Amino acid sequence: MSGTDRSAAAGEPVAAERAGVLRRVMRGRDPGEEHRASTPLELLFDLTFVVAVSQAAAQLHHALAEGHIGSGLAAYAAVFFAIWWGWMNFTWFASAYDTDDVPYRLLTLVQMAGVLVLAAGVRAVFVDSDFTLVVVGYVIMRVAMITQWLRAATEHREGRAGALRYAAGIAVVQVGWIARLWAPPGTWAWVTFLVLVAAELAVPAWAEYGGRATPWHPEHIAERYGLFTIIVLGEVILGSLAAVQSAVTEHGLTGTVVLIALGGLLLVFGVWWIYFAGNDAEFATLGTALTWGYGHYFVFAALAATGAGLEAALSAVEHRGQLSEQGAGLTVAVPVALVLLLLGALHRVAGTGSRGHLPLLTAGALVVLALGFSPPLFGLGGAVFGLGLAVGAILAAHLVAFHLQRRPPA
């Protein structure tokens, strides 16, 4: 009987559970628990990350529009790692140790505050290469995560070794991030960044292999990643709408703006459908789970970058910035092609999609990339609309292949 059922049986209102109990013992949740779904707290937590993703995508849009492609992409990749890694760590921890009591909720609040501090520092990274506020927000999130792991180590005897490894590994890397603020600018700053990223990525593998496996829930994890995908796509739609409104205000509703808007909508809908097409994800081994989980950094970053590309394309329509029409077409096509390649690989890793999914999406990515060079031939609006049609055609081919694969033999 679940905690809610016991409360109801004892005559206590179920609403009391939703209000958050004062204290529960933090034990590992059952990884085979049925009907495990995202909690209202997790959804509220995600909303703070929408703000951070929106800030990163907006700054990338400005960098692309002004022609600062190399520096803009580097800053975007760095900031997005901090955003994604903070979200991912909370998500996997919550899947295993969500007590939903008052201490757990308050520590989640601290992490949410850290996300907002990080979001406030995004612009400084792009404009001045100043990571101070981003690191402060990131460390706030990670200190709250260390506290959660220490609590798990104290109260969950079976998982103590792994929890202590997580806490120790995260703490050591945070010292590195703080020390990096005094690193000299230029090459050395980026070398230290990559070293610390590698250290962050190594902590879960070290902790899981060194102790008892953390009892995370595979279906819950897959649902959380799916929901965050929808959130990022929602940010793409919101940013694109704002850019469309700006273009219409400046030049009226032109055919090019209409085609870019329609193409962007087709892209979002097609990518969403491709992401969720197929069977539920399967994580047979820790390596599979980590590959699938880490691979989503590139999926989420590329999806948000697609929104920045659409905004840059609409800026090019207004003749704002330094980006050519062909450059604007590539700012949309490149992230979309990357998403298709990644989804093909992740569908294969997780056992979803059809057997021919990866070759199909690889071929589709090449077509999309070729269309990115087509604005001189079709115009910028025609090229973006063509990208939307191409993703729709890829989706249709995938659905046919998946149907034929699942159809029983005659």
Properties at a glance:
mainly alpha; 0% strand; single chain; 410 residues; 15 helices
What does the main sheet amount to?
none
Give the percentage of residues in beta strands: under 5%
Instruction: Please state the overall shape, judged from the principal axes of the Cα atoms.
Output: globular
Cα gyration radius (Å): 22 Å
Provide the helix percentage. Answer: over 70%
**Based on DSSP secondary structure assignment, what is the total number of beta strands?**
0
Q: Uncertain spans, ≥5 residues at pLDDT below 50? A: 1-16
- SSE ordering: HHHHHHHHHHHHHHH
Distance between the termini: 45 Å
Mean pLDDT: 87
Describe this structure in words.
The longest helix has about 35 residues, at about 220-250. Helix 4 crosses helix 12 and helix 13 runs antiparallel to helix 14 (about 355-370). The protein is mainly alpha-helical. Mean pLDDT is about 85; it is low at about 1-15. The chain has helices at about 5-10, 15-20, 40-65, 70-95, 100-120, 120-130, 130-155, 160-180, 185-210, 220-250, 255-275, 285-315, 325-350, 355-370, 375-405. The chain contains 15 helices and no strands. It is globular.
Give me the secondary-structure topology.
Elements: H1 3-9, H2 15-19, H3 40-65, H4 69-97, H5 102-120, H6 122-128, H7 132-155, H8 160-180, H9 187-210, H10 218-251, H11 255-276, H12 286-317, H13 325-350, H14 357-372, H15 375-406
